[in-house]
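Q: Focus on the chain.
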Amino acid sequence: MQRVHLVRVITESGERQIWLAATGRDEAVDRVLDVIPEGWTASLIQRELDAADAVALNLRPGEVRRHRLS
């Protein structure tokens, strides 16, 4: 079962975002930093998604994605 980690991103303007990383815990922040603009910061949130929520997101292994509320 794939784990999905939550990463907090703060933009240069101070906006806070949540990103999802279907990676190992130790690489989640680095993978998000690879796709966000330089100057933004990222930090791992200690909580990770439960199995049912992770499956519902349909993320591929290694994928990172910004979480948007619907």
Summary: The longest strand covers residues 41-48. The longest helix spans residues 28-35. The helical segments are 28-35, 51-57.
